Amino acid sequence: MTPSDLGLESGRAGQLYIGGEFVDPRGSKRLPVVEAATGALLAEVADAGAADVDEAVLAAVAAQPGWAATEPSSRADLLDAVRRGIERRAEEFARSITREVGTPIRHSRAIQVGNPIAILEHTEAALRELSFEETIGNCLVVREPVGVVGAITPWNYPLQQVVAKLAAALAAGCTVVLKASEVAPLTALLLAEVADEVRLPRGVFNVLVGRGETAGEALVTHPLVDKLSFTGSTRAGRRIAELAAALVRPLTMELGGKSASVALEDADLATAAKFAVYNAFLNSGQTCTALTRLLVPKTRLAEAEAVAVATAAKLPPGDPLEEGTRLGPLASQTQLERVRGYIRRGLDEGARLLTGGPDVPPGWERGFYVLPTVFSDVDPQMTIAQEEIFGPVLCIIGYDDEDQAVEIANGTPYGLAAAVWGGQKERAIEFARRLRAGTVEVNGGAFSTVAPFGGVRQSGYGREFGRQGIEEFLVPKSLQL
Ligand code: NAD
């Protein structure tokens, strides 16, 4: 493995990007990044500490006034340049993500790289339309950038999650210090190369690689950070919120989910169940919005089970770099153990295994492979129906009537996404209004990268994408005239 295979320039994998320069971290410790499909070492990356965080925040602080003073149209032009820079290197991004995360290469191109490109396009368009001033009563209300943003991101969509924060914060006139996930940090460094190539002003975007408890917490508590935008687990989000509370530091929180897909009595169940499997198994189930619970009328349970099993059979595990693969490995050993543990728990608690199971798929002993798994007769209170598994595990749950379906769908601590399928669109929309979730897909409606995205309840608060995404990083100031 040479660094050029990862798209990065030689020596960059172990570095940080601070104040417009690629620099070595202060400490000598390094963290391993492994290839999902083989478990082999892919690169050794920085394990940034508090001194590196401080340097990055100071660079962002120094760049902040100049960046805030730029015309929104110049910032929009730079977002466009970043988008074109990603497009030029799209294949390097896609391959790097496939190696780090295990996403099948076709999905990496279409989703892992395609979505960030769309997000940049939509954010740029929203910025060109956005008004930064309005008159309310006797006041001129000006909307100002909140300042220096600390961004912390997970590994499952490592470019999308960074770009969603970066594009919106830069559009608002904020500067950014990113603490990328230590599991899949190479994409963030590739993005730093793009930022460098398109001459984003120094210090406007800084990239740290390090662990959550060290670099992450140093960023969360740094006195000169004005706002935090976090995407990751509810567990880490809770810890970050506690630390931020002491500083009264504003937060945007994009956390976990346990989303339900509800097939109504008159739904086209063949399509609904097929979609449920594809959705739940996308990126090997490592998707925050994964629809991991399929709710069907009890009278139609057998029909749903047959479709789900037949669809899962079309998704055998494969090498994610092969063009035909639709289900790759999980991202890490930790993930593998976690997901197999949940499958065992499902069996122990009495769910009926339709396909898959906790065994390693034959022939896929290297890397972090797990069998695509479908359970039926799942009680809504079972662990596998309540907790985020983050693997290719679908739970089919029967319901008696629509009120009960609403109750089950809303009956977890989360509220990120949901889906509803019905023969009559208007009725399906009415049902969607009853679901407590930030986004609801109606009859397979496509994922939007421009409408507000985010959760309710323990899935977090605040929104990303489009105009609302930018507004997360603006604060109103009322000039009383
Ligand atoms: P994670 O919470 O373990 O880590 C996320 C990031 O937070 C990493 O960069 C990590 O280093 C950092 N971190 C961890 N502990 C920290 C601490 N105490 N202080 C500061 N930073 C800390 O999550 P993960 O395993 O990387 O990602 C999977 C999770 O992310 C899942 O729960 C998934 O649902 C969630 N997610 C949510 C969304 C969304 O938009 N709502 C999108 C993608 C992923």
What can you tell me about this protein's structure?
The structure is a single chain. This protein has 481 residues and is of the alpha/beta class. The protein folds into two domains: 3-255, Aldehyde Dehydrogenase, Chain A, domain 1 (3-Layer(aba) Sandwich), CATH 3.40.605; 260-447, 3-Layer(aba) Sandwich (Aldehyde Dehydrogenase, Chain A, domain 2), CATH 3.40.309.10. It is built from 15 helices and 20 strands. The strands form five sheets. A seven-stranded mixed beta sheet has the order 14-15-16-13-12-17-18, sandwiched between helices. A six-stranded mixed beta sheet has the order 9-8-7-10-11-19, with helices on both faces. Strands 5-6-20 form a three-stranded antiparallel beta sheet, with no helix packed on it. It is globular. The mean pLDDT is 97. The structure holds nicotinamide-adenine-dinucleotide. The site of nicotinamide-adenine-dinucleotide (NAD) has 33 residues, from helix 7 and helix 8.
